[in-house]
Design goal:
Layout: E1 11-14, H1 24-38, H2 44-47, H3 55-59, H4 65-82, H5 93-102, E2 106-110, H6 115-125, E3 131-133, H7 141-148, E4 152-155, H8 158-167, E5 170-174, H9 181-187, E6 191-193, H10 199-222, E7 225-228, H11 233-246, E8 251-254, H12 263-275, E9 279-281, H13 291-295, H14 300-318, E10 323-325, H15 330-334, H16 339-346, H17 352-355, H18 360-369, H19 395-414, E11 422-428, E12 431-436, H20 445-457, E13 462-465
Parallel strand pairs: 1-2, 1-4, 2-3, 4-5, 5-6, 7-8, 7-10, 8-9, 12-13
Antiparallel strand pairs: 11-12
Helix pairs in contact: 1-4, 5-10, 7-8, 10-11, 14-16, 19-20
Length: 486
């Protein structure tokens, strides 16, 4: 089994020759020039059939021992003029590097090539690397890989496998350098790919698997856990993962019931949790009694999360549950505007999904693989998120929004249109903005008129369909200084 590297971020090492670039044509041309200068008929095809070993090893069988060093120096001096501009990247090389970047990772180039010439290739071909380490071979590559914290090393030669294993990294081999699949597997590689074109898909799966393993290991260490459970994709996955790691008897699902939680969300959330064998607690929360919540400035979510955790933590303690966690994912942490995360952190809530590096897309993919019904559930923020900042949040406003959204959904789906995301935004002064999936716009005029009439019937004096369609967090644009509320 390959080792389990750190969950986030990935650090990936790559070999250069015949892994990222096709150096064989340039090597052939350069060896012919060198042979002509030395007056030696070098077996060029044989020497370039399995590139990778250090140059001195390639030259040694064909020159007197005392001539090997000077010949290598001359080869390196000739190299820039004969083997840089003519050397192409191998298929999938740029895409492989980009795949590492998509996961927020670092790229370490560790090669047996003379460093200056390796750098010339990197610059000429625009290879996106963070660190370049040259003139290292076999197990010697492990020093650089360990120093940079590489959890994966990608190469084409059995000696690249040797370097990866010596570094304790996952060895990924590609069949572009002359070594056969059997040879690479015999050397101990963990993965064999036909080419780097297969690497992005492999890396996506590897990162996901690694992060899920980190999540489950973390949860198993907790002993017991109460999950702040809304029924959305994030908290549902966290609940399911906790059950896998701890067993249902050591997990609690706690859903705060208040005016801001749509009634339509409550029964499905409870059914999912109970289907996992988890006890569900539904305490009443009273965020509406907090002045900061009602005022609905940019930090409304702080007061909401504070209320939830101030109710949840004592409940967990009464049940002998050691820890409390929220479904915050890795995207939430870097989103820049999440005052609720601060409130939860101040109250000691854990964020296992974020700690494992699981993004929203990965949450959905793991949920799909685990056959959780929430894997493609649309985001369902609380009803208060529909109220424009500065407009007071009241039970009346929230009930009106809930009625209006139910009416719009009924109108659109009744017309045979597939509606996924929907928000009715309360803009104040009895004005509403209706946001539906942008792909449905413009709505047929008859339908638009009918659903706006339903919104007015729900209690809004004025209503319009937003031209840009649904946008998560659309009301945040109106905040004059979001940094103030972090």
């Amino acid at each position: 089994m390959p080792p389990t590297p750190s969950a986030v971020p990935p650090v990936v090492g790559f070999d250069l020759d015949m892994t990222l670039i096709d150096t064989a044509p340039g090597f052939r041309a350069l060896l012919r020039v060198l042979g002509d200068e030395l007056g030696v008929a070098l077996p060029v095809e044989e020497m370039t059939a399995r590139l990778g070993p250090p140059l001195d090893q390639l030259l040694a069988p064909h020159l007197p021992a005392e001539a090997v060093g000077p010949a290598g120096d001359r080869f390196r001096a000739l190299y820039p003029d004969h083997a840089v501009t003519t050397t192409p990247v191998l298929p999938g090389a740029h895409e492989a590097l980009a795949a590492v970047r998509r996961h927020g990772g670092r790229i370490v180039l560790v090669t047996g090539k003379f460093p200056d010439n390796a750098r010339r290739h990197v610059e000429h071909l625009g290879l996106d690397v963070d660190v370049l380490e040259g003139w290292v071979w076999g197990a010697g590559k492990a020093t650089a890989l360990r120093r940079e914290g590489a959890g994966v090393y990608v190469g084409d030669h059995v000696h690249d496998v040797e370097g990866a294993l010596a570094a304790g990294a996952t060895s990924v081999s590609v069949l572009t350098g002359g070594c056969t699949r059997a040879e690479l597997l015999d050397a101990g590689t963990h993965v064999v790919l036909d080419s780097l074109e297969d690497f992005p898909g492999w890396l996506d799966d590897h990162v996901l698997t690694t992060r899920v393993a980190a999540l489950e290991a973390r949860l198993a260490d907790l002993g017991s856990l109460a999950v702040a459970y809304s029924g959305g994709a994030d908290s549902a996955l966290l609940l399911a993962a906790a059950v896998r790691a701890l067993g249902p008897g050591r997990v609690l699902a706690v859903t705060g019931y208040s005016d801001s939680l749509p009634a339509v969300e409550r029964d499905p959330a409870r059914a999912f949790a109970e289907g996992l064998g988890v006890e569900v607690l539904t305490p009443r929360t009273h965020e509406m009694e907090r002045e900061g919540y009602r005022a609905n400035d940019g930090d409304r979510c702080f007061f909401c999360k504070a209320e939830l955790l101030d109710v949840l933590v004592p409940l967990a303690r009464e049940r002998g549950v050691e820890h409390v966690a929220t479904g915050t994912n890795a995207d939430d942490v870097v989103a820049g505007f999440r005052p609720g995360i601060r409130a939860a952190a101040e109250r000691g809530a854990l964020t296992p999904l974020a700690d494992a590096g699981l993004t929203k897309a990965q949450v959905r993919e793991v949920s799909r693989r685990w056959a959780l019904p929430t894997w493609d559930k649309p985001a369902a923020a609380c009803l208060s998120s529909r109220v424009a900042y500065g407009v007071e949040v009241t039970p009346h406003r929230l009930a009106r929004i809930e009625r209006a959204e139910a009416a719009v959904r009924e109108s659109v789906t009744g017309a045979g249109l597939p509606l996924r995301d929907l928000r009715v935004r309360d803009l104040g002064e009895d004005r509403a903005s209706v946001e539906v999936d942008a792909a449905l716009l413009p709505l047929p005029s008859v339908l638009a008129g009918a659903l706006l009439a339903r919104v007015r019937e729900a209690g809004f004096a004025h209503a319009e369909v937003a031209e840009r369609g649904f946008r998560s967090g659309g009301l945040n644009d109106a905040l004059p200084d979001p940094e103030r509320w972090r």
